């Protein structure tokens, strides 16, 4: 995770960002530094009063990301065990979102280069789809089934073991 | 890819999808090959399989089963790859006719069997290929074979130990030889020195850990040396026995009969079956801590498992449990052999946190249980 340096932590400067749908947000510089993209912009002196425009991040996920970065920047160095635990709890609650928001967070965190959040969202997605059927996955990700019924049957046959969800203890053969 | 407020009509960027799928176990991944063509392409890609194997080292259990008859009524030996936590069969590979199914050795992604013509068969369960060991001189009947991999080069080697009964009916090691696999017709058995003391070659008293094969000294030597070191070690890379014997865990000195050796989490493990105390103790041989506080190598009792069969008065041929593998989530897979038999048994998954146990599979004609660490995504 990109840890804020002491310098950045002491800095009280607020960084303004603008979502794709024109909403303005503010966060401390240390928080903005958790995003690779924002950090580079700040280093290049592109952070002005008008705010950094984020053309592909909508207001809803951006608000969440500002929350995430602000929380993590405030607690980034020299964590006690309790603080680390608290941050873990924060993450767990933070990522309890519906699939639309999860999708937005995945893409936005990846775009903005917020490593910690990206990992969190990727793991959450993996946990969500782990027990699902191919059909449920198509629904979740909005994927069109491009197999013919014969092909699909063939794949299911080839991977038969993976489709048996539960099985009572039994003889192997 | 532009996210919108209702973005499920989009498809995830490839890199993100790759990261997400890499975190899933092999089972859902094989299932998700049926989602769509791009997913199938990714999930069938050998590069993805390699990345996945590196991230999920969780092994499968290889169960060797004899007794299936071919159309001529001859007994065949099959190797089943079994999902360790569910007991589901992932794959069955026929190893052909192998008269003495007890002489099997498993290591990494390979299974070694002795066939009816006394030839060695090396089975790769992922591909189903069964190459014969190229040196096909008949092996004498009284040999044991131990398959292992050298620590640095990863070469598969077989240690053959030939032993004969002496005048008192005790097996004595006559000679040892080593063969390197994968050398084609150039492969030859090379004679290597005998162990520093006579060893037992029974499979449950042999374990290969990090390129070293460990053996238990045979009983007459044990009696002579009670309280002393009783494990001999053969380095597969150097092809030499280590000159010094290794002492067992502190509580096993007088109960060597009821121990078995295993490899768990990369350590040599002595499992001590204390039926009287109703427990199976797992002792791990751990490296020194580096700060000098715990010396060089030391034994650490990491688990005391209570098996349902325990609590009865202990008898020599009672039911017995053999630790097979520790899963990523900390649960331990055991194979429990039936009383008075080296055939059959059940696969039991033990949870050290709750103490709970689940029998996930049973096989009446099992003759050998080992660990398979190859990638399942690569299975055809």
Automatic annotation (TrEMBL), chain A:
Keywords: Ubl conjugation pathway
Location of the SKP1 component POZ domain: 14-73
UniProt-listed GO biological process terms: jasmonic acid mediated signaling pathway; protein ubiquitination; ubiquitin-dependent protein catabolic process
Domain of life: Eukaryota
Alphabetical list of InterPro entries matching this protein: SKP1 (IPR016897), SKP1-like (IPR001232), SKP1-like_dim_sf (IPR036296), SKP1/BTB/POZ_sf (IPR011333), Skp1_comp_dimer (IPR016072), Skp1_comp_POZ (IPR016073)
Protein family membership: Belongs to the SKP1 family.
Protein name: SKP1-like protein
Automatic annotation (TrEMBL), chain B:
Record Gene3D superfamilies: 1.20.1280.50
Pfam family, any one: F-box
Domain F-box: residue ranges: 6-56
Transmembrane segment boundaries: none
SMART domains: FBOX
Domain of life: Eukaryota
Protein known as: F-box domain-containing protein
Organism in which the protein naturally occurs: Oryza meyeriana var. granulata
Taxon lineage: Eukaryota, Viridiplantae, Streptophyta, Embryophyta, Tracheophyta
